[in-house]
Design goal:
Helices cover 39% and strands 13% of the residues. By secondary structure, the chain is α/β, with parallel strands linked by helices. β1, α2 and β2 form a beta-alpha-beta unit. α6 packs parallel to α8 and α11 packs across α12. The longest helix has 18 residues. The protein is elongated, with a radius of gyration of 24 Å.
Length: 528
C-alpha cells in the first residue's frame, strides 16, 4: 500500500522534482536511470509511458520503486491502444451525441488503463475551435453545449476510477488559427471577455457540475494577444489566473514543453521556471533533452528567482492532492455489457451518408467497380524502408489491404487499386485507363491528424485524379476531417466516417445494404 507524501516532509530539491513529469523514460536509458533515482528520493511526481508492450512492462518497475502514489501518464483519446475497445476519437462521440455512451466509453477506457497501471490520461479535448481549424476530429464538435455535456461525462468517468484527466488545451483559444502549436506559435486576438464567455464556457460548466471531480486541466501554448502579448498561455500569469477565478481547485499541467510554440521563443531553461511561475503545477519538460538537465534547469530557475517557494509549495500541494486521488479504484475492472454495447454503437453510428435524390445508400451487387483506395506516402528517411504500396505504418487504423479484401469478397468481378496520397504517373494512368472498363468508380480516402503534420487535407494531386474520372465516379467514402470533402468533386453517394478500422468495416457493410448509417456530422458542410 502506497502512502501519500506530505508537503512539510519535502526539501526544496524534492519539491522541484515533484512538479516535473519524467518523459522518454522508456526510450532513453539515461532517463530511466535518473527517474528511478528521483522516485526513490521522493523527487519526481510521475512518468509518461506510452501504451506499448515495452512501456507496460516498465510500469511495474517504476511503481515498485515508488512508495507513494506515482503518476503514470499517457494520452488515450481513442481508448487503450493495447485493448480491444477502441473508438474513432472524441469526434465520433459528438456525431453519435449520446452522453451515456460517452460516459461508458470513458469509463471502459479508464478501467482498462487502470488495469495496466495508468492513473493519468490527457483527455478530453474541449477546445471550442473554428470548425475548419486543425484538429477538429479530436473534440466532440464545436458547439459549446454539446462539448460541455460530453466533456463532463468523460471527466466524471475518469474521476470515478481514480484517473486524473486533463481537459485540454486551456485557454482553448484556437478559434482563430489554423497552425499546429507543435510547430509554431498560435495566436488568439479576442478580448478577455470573449475568452471568458466563449472559449472557457466548457471549463466553467465542468467546474460547476463536477466540483472536486474536475481534477485536471492541461494548458496550451496559444498567445492571447489582447490579454498578454508577451507570453503564450502556458507561460502567462494573466491567462493562467483567469481559470482560478471560477474556483478550479484541481491540477494545472502544461502541454509538452518540447513544442515549437515554446522552445522557438523561450529556450530550454527559463520556460520551465516561467511555466511554474505562471500557475502550472506539473510540467511536461522537453523530451528531447535529458531529464536530469530539465531538473537542473528548473532548480536554477528557482535559484534565479523566477518563482518563489510559496508558488512551489502551492504547486506541490496540488500535485500531492492529485496523487492521492489516484488511489481510488473502479468497483470492477471488468467491462459491463452496457459499456461494450456503447463502444460498438459508437463505431457503427459515427457515419453519415449523403445521397442525391433517388440514389440508394447501397451499391448494386450486379455491377463491377473500380475501387481506388488511398494509402499513405512512406518516406525512406522516416521508415528506412522503400515504399510498399498498400501498407501503412504511421496511420495505424487505416488498413488498405483489409479494405480491399473486404470489398472484393462482397463485390466479385471488381478490382481494387492502391493509390498514394501523392499519386505517381503509373497510378494515375491505371485509374484513368481502367475507369471506363468498370460500371462505376468508388474512392476510399482519409486524412489523419498527427502532431507536426500541419494539415488535414487531401492532396491537390489526388484531388485532380478524382476530378479526372468524376463522370465515372458514383461514390466517395472519406474518413477523417469532414472539411476535406468540401473541395472534392461531386459524387451521387458520399460517406463520411471517423477514424477507426471498425468504422471502416461498418461503411463497407452499408455499401452492401446490410444497414443504413444513422450518424449526423455536427458541422455545416459546403459540398460540391
Amino acid at each position: 500500500m502506497k502512502t501519500p507524501l506530505r508537503l512539510e516532509d519535502l526539501t526544496v530539491e524534492q519539491k522541484i522534482g515533484q512538479v516535473l513529469l519524467g518523459r522518454a523514460v522508456v526510450s532513453k536509458p539515461e532517463n530511466t536511470e535518473f527517474a528511478l533515482k528521483m522516485i526513490k528520493n521522493h523527487a519526481l511526481c510521475g512518468v509518461q509511458i506510452d501504451p506499448t508492450p515495452k512501456g507496460v512492462e516498465m510500469i511495474k518497475m517504476f511503481q515498485d520503486a515508488a512508495d507513494y502514489p506515482l503518476f503514470i501518464a499517457c494520452d488515450m483519446e481513442q481508448g487503450n491502444p493495447l485493448g480491444e475497445y477502441l473508438i474513432p476519437g472524441n469526434f465520433a462521440l459528438g456525431i453519435v451525441d449520446n452522453v451515456e455512451d460517452t460516459y461508458n466509453f470513458a469509463k471502459a477506457t479508464a478501467k482498462q488503463a487502470k488495469s495496466y497501471g495508468y492513473n493519468m490520461m490527457w483527455s478530453p479535448v474541449v477546445d471550442i475551435r473554428d470548425p475548419r481549424c486543425l484538429g477538429i476530429m479530436r473534440g466532440f464538435g464545436h458547439q459549446g453545449e454539446r462539448l460541455a455535456d460530453h466533456a463532463t461525462a468523460f471527466m466524471k468517468a475518469f474521476a470515478d476510477c481514480g484517473i486524473i484527466g486533463g481537459a485540454k488545451h486551456y485557454p482553448s483559444a484556437n478559434n482563430a488559427t489554423k497552425y499546429d502549436s507543435h510547430m509554431t506559435e498560435q495566436t488568439f486576438d479576442g478580448t478577455e471577455e470573449e475568452l471568458r464567455e466563449k472559449n472557457l464556457y466548457v471549463y466553467r460548466r465542468m467546474i460547476e457540475n463536477l466540483g472536486e471531480d474536475m481534477c485536471g486541466i492541461m494548458t496550451g501554448h496559444t498567445t492571447c494577444s489582447k490579454i498578454d502579448p508577451d507570453y503564450p498561455g502556458t507561460l502567462s500569469k494573466k491567462v493562467m489566473s483567469i481559470i482560478r477565478d471560477y474556483n478550479f481547485q484541481g491540477l494545472m499541467m502544461t502541454d509538452s514543453l518540447a513544442m515549437g510554440a515554446i522552445i522557438q521563443n523561450f529556450g530550454e531553461e527559463d520556460m520551465l521556471g516561467l511555466s511554474l511561475a505562471a500557475g502550472n503545477d506539473m510540467l511536461l519538460p522537453n523530451y528531447r533533452i535529458p531529464l536530469e538537465d530539465s531538473y537542473n534547469y528548473l532548480l536554477n530557475c528557482y535559484k534565479k528567482g523566477l518563482f518563489d517557494e510559496a508558488r512551489l509549495d502551492e504547486a506541490v500541494a496540488n500535485v500531492l492532492r492529485a496523487q492521492e486521488r489516484t488511489m481510488r479504484q473502479p468497483e470492477t475492472y471488468e467491462l459491463t455489457e452496457a459499456e461494450k454495447e456503447s463502444i460498438a454503437r459508437i463505431n457503427r453510428d459515427c457515419i453519415e451518408v449523403i445521397t442525391d435524390p433517388g440514389v440508394p445508400v447501397a451499391l448494386s451487387k450486379d455491377k463491377k467497380y473500380l475501387f481506388v483506395i488511398m494509402t499513405e506516402n512512406l518516406y525512406p528517411s522516416a521508415t528506412n524502408n522503400s515504399q510498399i504500396v498498400g501498407e501503412t505504418k504511421t496511420v495505424k487504423w487505416w488498413k488498405p489491404q483489409e479494405i480491399a479484401d473486404s470489398l472484393l469478397e462482397r463485390f466479385p468481378g471488381s478490382v481494387t487499386k492502391f493509390v498514394c496520397e501523392y499519386p505517381n504517373d503509373l497510378m494515375n494512368d491505371f485509374v484513368v485507363a481502367n475507369a471506363s472498363k468498370y460500371d462505376e468508380v468508388v474512392f476510399f480516402t482519409y486524412c489523419n491528424y498527427r502532431a507536426y503534420q500541419g494539415t488535414e487535407e487531401i492532396t491537390r494531386r489526388f484531388q485532380i485524379l478524382m476530378e479526372s474520372v468524376q463522370k465515372r465516379t458514383s461514390t466517395i467514402v472519406h474518413f477523417g476531417s469532414p472539411y476535406a470533402m468540401e473541395p472534392l468533386p461531386h459524387a451521387p453517394r458520399r460517406f463520411i466516417g471517423a477514424n477507426s478500422a471498425k468504422c471502416i468495416q461498418h461503411v463497407i457493410e452499408a455499401l452492401c445494404g446490410e444497414y443504413v448509417p444513422q450518424g449526423k456530422i455536427p458541422l455545416e458542410l459546403n459540398l460540391l
